[in-house]
What we know:
globular; Porin; 66% strand
Amino acid sequence: MNKKFIFCGLVAASITAFSKPISIYVEPFFTGIDYSNSKIKKDGYSTTLYGLVSLENGLHVFEGAYGYTHLNYKNSNTNWNQNDYVIAYTNYQLFPWYFKIGYHYIASPNTDISKSSNTFFLDLGWIKKYAYSYGTFLSYSNYRQKVSTVEVRPHAGFYYWLDFYRGFYYSIDGTWIRINNQNNIGLTQKNYFSVQGSVTYFTPQYSLGLSLWGGKRTFMVDNGGFVIYNLRERYKYGANLKGRYYFNKRISVGVQFGYNKYKELSTNKNVSVFTSTVSVGFSF
């Protein structure tokens, strides 16, 4: 049976500098998941605890996350439970150049190709602070049944300022995913391509963002390595709407609503996935 991914709606922090020698950020997430037109999956939820530690005014950034996902299956299918563990390190000592390395481990008591899987990821890029950035994200994942994936994602973004405090941030990326030994798990296609674009309006008090993507995806490593779609189904397109409100410099609340469409491999049904996420961020 095919399984769902972990860390729905998780957004890894992107930080290039801090005003303090040591900074800490913690954010718990809760996500509700609902499937429409699936013959296998009904609904579920995901909980995630994300943490970040910045040293030497942001020159060294350490990230970590733990997530748990539970999915309710229909009929006599066994429900799905999954644990995710993620660690990452970003170095800005050669600023404006940066590099990020990380590791994502999936563990589940259920029997599937992703019962236990490993993902190694790397991001290399260049930043002109408060102006624009570009880089390339790379990942390698291995699963059971001798299945492995390679992902390459060039990405770029830029700011459009309305004044000293308000503006827009635009980003675009393209993704290529290659699956090795795909026939072992019932897939016929080896290469998958997709494009994504997003825009975020930000102020000192709040931010609002919208992202859209289209193409073909499967076994996608997303959100800087913190989200993995460890599914056999082929995703077609999706959208995400998010917002965040800052009560002060230390506390903020975020909400996200996601929609994705994929084809269910075992039933050939077009399935819609709806996610709703709420999170609270704490800065120290």
